[in-house]
Amino acid sequence: MLTTSYKKLMLKSLIWKNKDKEPVINEEKQKNIIADLQLNKLMSLMSKEPVIKMTSQIFLSSITSDIENIKYRQCILKDFICREEIMDILESLVVKLDEMNSLHKILKSELRVPKAMLRLKKLELYYSVMKGLEEVFAIEKKSNLSKEFIVIAEEIKTVNEQNRLEQLEKDIREAKNIISKVKSIDVGANLDFKSDVREAIVFSLNDFKYEKSNMIDKVMMNDSDLFSKTSIVTEIDISGSAPLLLVKNELYKEFETLINSDLHIIENIINNYEEIITSEVLKYRDEICLYFGAVRLYKFMMSLNMPVSFPVSCRHGAELESLYSLNMAYERMVCEDKERFKIIKNNIFIGNSEEVMLITGPNNGGKTVLLESLAVAQLLFQNGIMIPASNGKMSVYSKVYSHFPKDEDISISAGRLGEEANRISRILKRSDKNTLVLFNEPYITTSPTEGLDILVLTLMKFKQVGTMVYLVTHYLDILDSIDSRINIASYVLEYSNGVKTYKALNEEPMAYCHALDIARKYGIDAEGILKLIENRKEEAEEK
User: Fold this and answer.
1) Which residues, including other chains, have CB under 8 Å from residue 1's CB and lie 6 or more apart?
2) Which residues pair with 202 in a beta bridge?
């Protein structure tokens, strides 16, 4: 057994090149982004494991604005994508790290036996995780890996050598061998007046296991002497009710007394490695979750035969080629009617001086889908993950806010309008020149004239603080009403010969009526109206 003291080593983060640039999570913003952009669909594409889905969701709704961190993640993700054989290892590491994290939180028992067993299990998980990381970051002689990947690989190797991982494995085995010598115990149980087990006494420790079948066979053979004394043969589950839990504690105490000398050896082994069991390795759980989910997402996009790319940063605006919706791709995957969900590619250009991207078009023509596509691409980019587009240049924002009123909230009332204005006001107070705000049809709860006036004033306020706004609106006259000092990139979802193409055209809003589209949205069409009139006519004649 080794008795060397170890120096704590800080493991290099897989996602933060500049740790001081880590973002602060805004829970309100996070909740809105997740709901508005339907990130649950994206999470389902990234993994089925709850811990991976939840962690990826937290990352995507909490972007990093440091371009060096973004590039750092892009490099490591590309290396992971090129090494497909490590996916199973990454998934197993997430499970082990999650279990290790759980042990880290519950290691509070005062009883020596369970505490020693939990600490030994944590050591075993640590060994398994570090060996797995070494395998994931193994550097082959002919591998064309990034310098970021190589630095992490060499650091993990150094940590494992410093902590003599092979010796750790031998010591864990020694400790497990000591405890595994005990195969069974002889216990006497005392009952209360209800015949519930209240306390137990350990009579002996045995190096053999009892075979239940031997006792059962004797009973089934109708051994008269045995049967007269034993009416029921059963197995006590000590992990069950509260009284049995007390028995379990009593057993531990007795057990501890009987194996005291061996328990000292086990505790010495564990204490020898206490310095290397820090929270440092636990941080890799969330970081590996992000990469695992990103690789899964990459594979999904490739299976669609659709473009994938890693964007580069630009000073302002965005330039995206063949952008498409991952949410729509998810719906197409899970829906039997594949033609119902068309995956359309669009080219988007927002220039250096443009402050508002305006999106108009027919109802159900793809406006919200386009806004979601742009927003999801932004979140993926600012997490160092490839985007659903063939090529991309995107600016980096420190904050992204969304405001998507829900259909069920729509009511023509001053209360609803006031609530919406209050929420937008809160977003405005938190916004600055490094903020992106996503508006999906704001102020539809009031009259067109009043709604348009409030929207123009809102855009002027965001103009004053320098915030970039992506706006979906049904107010087609907005270009005539808005201040000429606001530079707008206007996109219209095409409506050609009565057919929605879902293609975004870089042109000014068209002056057509959306009344029929809006009526259909709420289940009202010409055929339905005629049928309603006919029914009312028949009812009147019957009277």
Assistant:
1) 171, 174, 268, 269, 272
2) 187
Please give the pLDDT value at position 72: 95
User: In sequence order, what are the residues at sequence separation of 6 or more whose Cβ sits closer than 8 angstroms to the Cβ of residue 45?
Assistant: 296, 297, 300, 326, 329, 330
Q: Measured between alpha carbons, how far is residue 506 from residues 60, 139, 311, 381, 487 in Å?
A: 29, 48, 22, 23, 14
Beta strands 488-496 and 435-440, pairing class: unpaired
User: Mean pLDDT of residues grouped by 10 in the chain (543 residues)?
Assistant: 52 82 59 88 90 88 91 95 89 92 72 81 91 90 85 90 87 86 76 73 76 54 44 44 56 72 85 73 91 95 94 94 94 82 92 93 87 96 96 94 70 66 90 94 83 90 95 86 86 80 87 52 53 62 62
Q: How far apart are CA 458 and CA 445, in angstroms?
A: 15
With CA atoms as reference, report the closest residue to 128 among 160, 93, 171: 93
Of the candidates 490, 463, 494, the residue with the CA atom closest to the CA atom of residue 477 = 490
pLDDT for 150 equals 92
Contact in structure between 483 and 463 (CB atoms under 8 Å): yes
Q: What pairs with residue 393 in β-bridges?
A: 312, 319
- Provide DSSP, 161-228: HHTTHHHHHHHHHHHHHHHHT--EEEEEEEE-TT--EEEEEEEEEESS---HHHHHHHHHTT-HHHHH
Q: What's the pLDDT at 539? A: 65
Beta bridge partners of 491: 359
The residue whose two tokens read 């880290």 is 104
Judge contact between 165 and 277, C-beta under 8 A: no
Tell me the CA distances in angstroms from 460 to 330, 437, 455, one per residue in order: 37, 14, 9
Run of H or E including 435:
strand 435-440
Quick one: tokens of 520? 């259909």
Nearest-angstrom CA–CA distance, 5 and 65: 40
User: Which H/E stretch holds residue 271?
Assistant: helix 260-272
Q: According to DSSP H, which parts of 13-86 are helical?
A: 27-36, 39-46, 50-60, 67-82
pLDDT at 224: 46
Is the pTM higher than 0.85? The answer reads no
Contact of 23 with 65, CB cutoff 8 Å: yes
> Could you identify the residue written with the tokens 């890693």?
310
Q: Is 355 exposed, middle or buried (0-12, 13-18, 19+ CB in 10 A)?
A: buried
Residue 14 phi/psi, 5-degree rounding, is -85, -15
CB 343 within 8 A of CB 306: yes
Rounded-to-integer distance, Cα 158 and Cα 143, Å: 20
- Read off the DSSP letter of residue 507: S
Amino acid letter, residue 374: L
3-state secondary structure of 439: strand
CB atoms within 10 A of CB 281: 19
pLDDT of res. 400: 93
| pLDDT on residue 434 | 94
Q: Parallel, antiparallel, or unpaired: how do β-strands 312-313 and 391-394 relate?
A: parallel
